[in-house]
Amino acid sequence: MDSIWKMMRIVCWVLILLGEHIKGGESINFNKKVTVKIVNKLHSSKIGYPALTVHCRDKLHDLPQVTLKYNEVFSFRFLPNIFAAVTLYYCHFQWPTGNYHFDIYVQERDYDCNDFLCYWKIAEYGPCGTIYDGSNSTACFAWGKALPAKNFTLSS
């Protein structure tokens, strides 16, 4: 009898967690991977088109370091946490005149990006990504800041 009550409590907790995950009638997609794409958009009259070294990780995964030429893309895929918006990937970006960190995927901010594709352009003034709030505007973040600095239009 005791084991039945324990099982019932576990089932109740799972249902509560699933209920918390479903917001506004959204369906849960247990196997939908997020793809993060990072493109080197570094360019200035002082440094030309420098190579960008990128090293990304989360608390469990340390991705290989890559070096991108101008307009080259690095991408990686993962399954976000389905029970709580706690998935976080952060990257270290380095080039001859810059050395910065940025939280490239914050589940609460980037939950489904653009059908689970998060696209980031890395520029000297900061990383720029699309805000998927219906406006599809570009938000650029100043290096070392948590809030968008200003909106920029980047050439592709």
From TrEMBL:
GO terms for biological process: rejection of self pollen. Residues 1-27 form the signal peptide. InterPro entries: Self-incomp_S1. Keywords: Secreted, Self-incompatibility, Signal. It is found in: Secreted. One of its GO terms (cellular component) is extracellular region. The keyword Secreted applies. PANTHER family: PTHR31232, S-PROTEIN HOMOLOG 29-RELATED. Belongs to the plant self-incompatibility (S1) protein family. This is S-protein homolog. It comes from Vigna mungo. The lineage of its organism: Eukaryota, Viridiplantae, Streptophyta, Embryophyta, Tracheophyta.
